[in-house]
Amino acid sequence: MYYSYSKPCSSLPYKEAQVKFLTERMKQVGYDDNFPVVIWNGSILDGRHRYNAADLAGVNPNFSVFEGTEQEAWDYVSATNVDGTRHINSEEKQFFYAQLADALGVRTKAENQHTPNGVSSPSQSDHAKSLGVHLNTINRWEKERKEIAADPELSLKASTPEG
Question: Using CA atoms, how far apart are residues 51 and 105, in angstroms rounded to an integer?
Fold first, then answer.
């Protein structure tokens, strides 16, 4: 069976060198079942490098299923990939934030004062905590995200990590 990538997964950088490294390791020792490919809503939430490397190495990956909301899926990817546990640079983290903010929104200061029973978008502070960055960084990224969104040409370019 072929799996596509979820939006949270594809908002992280794809690194060919990592796939090559994992492929060679899997050819030597097989798939490490301690690190399953995580499936959410029928697509890969976490583990696309492992998934592709297993295919290239001719081994069967281990899968697990994530049961959760969209917010929980983004939080999972953030916790396991963005907050310092993996090697992604500031630009890659900023792209992930823009995709996250587009998917879940960003609660304004006015909305913070009138949140109906916790049912709303995360605040900038919430996003900063989940990404392991300072609130000032999120403020800067949010300003840039809005400027890019206002320009159709820039918005199209910014829809991929390469843009």
Answer: 30
Q: For the chain, state the CA radius of gyration.
A: 17
Separation CA 121–CA 128 (nearest Å): 13
Minimal CA–CA distance to 124: which of 110, 5, 72?
110
Give dist(CA 84, CA 86) in Å, integer: 5
- CA 115 centroid distance within chain: 26
Cβ neighbours of residue 102 under 8 Å, at least 6 residues apart? 145
What is this structure's pTM? 0.78
| pLDDT at 134 (0 to 100) | 87
Q: Residue 116's pLDDT is what?
A: 54
User: Which residue in 77, 84, 74 sits closest to 105, CA to CA?
Assistant: 74
In the predicted model, residues of the chain with pLDDT beneath 70 are 83-86, 108-119, 158-163
CA dist., res. 67 & res. 42, Å (int): 11
Amino acid 18 reads Q
**How many residues in the chain?**
163
pLDDT tens digits, 77-121: 988 887 656 677 888 888 888 888 888 888 766 555 555 555 578
DSSP letter at 87 equals -
